[in-house]
Amino acid sequence: MAPEGGVCKQVVESHPKHVKYDVGMGKAEKNNTLVKSATGLGEKHRIPSTNGVHELLECPVCKSLMYPPIYQCPDGHTLCSDCKLRVHNCCPTCRHELGNIRCLALEKVAESLELTCRYQSLGCHDIFLYYSKLKHEQHCRFRPYNCPYAGSDCSITGDIPALVAHLKDDHNVDMHDGCTFNHRYVKANPHEVENATWMLTVFNCFGRQFCLHFEAFQLGSAPVYTSFLRFMGEDSEEKKFGYSLEVGGYGRKLTWQGVPRSIRDSHRKVRDSLDGLIIPRNLALFFSGGDREELKLRVTGRIWKEQ
């Protein structure tokens, strides 16, 4: 006999496309690792356990670890809160209506578990209590970086050596050694601003890598050019370095001095914060000279290590 409330006539058979944080990194190597994101794909993160309790905490739908509130049907089958909504309140195991019964015992058991970080294969060997694991992984220094190339929607992630090789091989980014630079940017039609000009150069300096960005974008209703530097490393290290940028012509110049932002911050976040050299288009065309119908900007700069 079905419990009071009836039997659901429909149940979700396939896994949802939404990927929860506990979907694993797949067969990632510790060094020179690239991972391509794919919505709804990925290997389940296996956690060492001698008693199999962690298997009870795996949601039967998304195969991710469950965190409170954990729900159960009248027959005791458990489900995470996100998937409870996806299956329209129907138990995917027995098809009975779920209701709002909490599995408090399983939530309590989880408190006693100690688990490894999901980025163990990338170098993190710390152990965490079950409910501390998620917070740690959101800030783990071994978590992969996103590709800093902003000219396309690139889903590649990886460690710094792998991303440097990826930028060179897959995006054809120019690579330079040295801590000073002198770059010339030319654009035939500078009146095309939105997504019209975008360039990236990678510098190897002090044994670290830096991304120099130059692009055109719309600042409100004003077309502008911007250039800024990003640090390929953790945000806790970015303040160890400084940089300056300069652009000018005809006896006038603009200068900028700042701290290279970590690539943990997205390209768009850095750009939209205006944390870099901002050049109004009219001034950029003045620096370019001639008939003001062609952009010819020379940006010079320097990177240094703070004492």
From TrEMBL:
Enzyme Commission code: 2.3.2.27
Enzymatic reactions: S-ubiquitinyl-[E2 ubiquitin-conjugating enzyme]-L-cysteine + [acceptor protein]-L-lysine = [E2 ubiquitin-conjugating enzyme]-L-cysteine + N(6)-ubiquitinyl-[acceptor protein]-L-lysine
Entries under PROSITE patterns matching the protein: ZF_RING_2 (PS50089), ZF_SIAH (PS51081)
Involved pathway(s): Protein modification; protein ubiquitination
UniProt-listed GO biological process terms: protein ubiquitination; regulation of autophagosome assembly; ubiquitin-dependent protein catabolic process
Domain RING-type, residue spans: 59-95
GO cellular component, one term: multivesicular body
Key words, A-Z: Metal-binding, Transferase, Ubl conjugation pathway, Zinc, Zinc-finger
Keyword Translocase: no
Main location: cytoplasm
Keyword Phosphoprotein attached: no
Pfam families documented for this protein: Sina_RING (PF21362), Sina_TRAF (PF03145), Sina_ZnF (PF21361)
Any one Gene Ontology molecular-function term assigned to this protein's record: zinc ion binding
Family: Belongs to the SINA (Seven in absentia) family.
PANTHER family for the chain: E3 UBIQUITIN PROTEIN LIGASE SIAH, RING-TYPE E3 UBIQUITIN TRANSFERASE
Protein name: RING-type E3 ubiquitin transferase
